Amino acid sequence: MRTEVITVRTGSSPAVVDITAEAERFLGEHASGADGLLHVFVPHATAGLAVIETGAGSDEDLLTAIGDLLPAQDRWVHRHGSRGHGRDHVLPAWIPPYASLPVFGGRIAFGTWQSVCLVDPNGDNPVRQVRFSFLTG
């Protein structure tokens, strides 16, 4: 198994950050044209990973849906951090902190328009870590 941790700057407001290029770079260095699985993990309690289309508004739509479903209000029991921060701790129940992606010939076998994205609703932590692991059988 080959593993690498990258740092992603998400900023001080909710963000969807496309990390596909970093995943492909990692595979280019470690997969050597092999078949296997790329496992992506975010070791944070307030962020997740999504496989979605980006650049056509879906990333903004996702942030809007998070705001609608999990509003940043004072109703959350978990209350440290910025207003409504408790919702950030609930997010990984819907957008998990991991994704396993099939790799064929050293490349992610995405469908049309798919990308892997870091979803970070928490502006309190502007820097995140993402772990890539390539597993072969």
From TrEMBL:
Superkingdom per UniProt: Bacteria
SUPFAM superfamilies reported in the protein's UniProt record: YjbQ-like
InterPro entries given in the database record: UPF0047_YjbQ-like, YjbQ-like_sf
Residues annotated as signal peptide: none
Family membership noted in the UniProt record: Belongs to the UPF0047 family.
PANTHER family: UNCHARACTERIZED PROTEIN YJBQ-RELATED, UPF0047 PROTEIN C4A8.02C
Protein name: Secondary thiamine-phosphate synthase enzyme
Species whose genome carries this gene: Actinoplanes teichomyceticus
Native organism taxonomy: Bacteria, Bacillati, Actinomycetota, Actinomycetes, Micromonosporales
